[in-house]
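Batch manifest, entry 17 of 40.
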Amino acid sequence: MGNMRRMSADEKSLGELLAATVPMVKTLNLEYLETTPERAVLRLPDQPAYHNHVQGPHAGAMFTLAESASGAIVLAAFGDQLSRAVPLPTTARIDFRKIARGVVTATATLGRPAADVVAELDAGERPEFPVNVAITREDGAVTGEMDIVWTLRPNG
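Output type: structure tokens
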């Protein structure tokens, strides 16, 4: 992904690119519904092979869904910085709020303005920034929340 850049409408979308290059995304059949610098929305289809003991999506599948949504927004917001820095998650915390059943969706948002993060990178720092992810079921109930901290590690 070091050569990733902003893509034109003729090229694969960021979601299609991630689905093609990240094996776990393909394994879980994650669907990219929206991927912008402001918001990333991914869906985990209801798949019995990934159910837990209460017939909902396994916690590991929901973690992967949320982490993948966070990565998508990070690449959408900071893809133009990949020539000088690599994005890496540093910590993640997930809270399971309600039982999830059926299709679940993860919506990721940046916890800091992207311009502030880039300004720190420009100043020679290694910026850190939170990404907040809400996991919801089809009725709109929040089943889980993830807070994940990312960094842009300068190359070199």
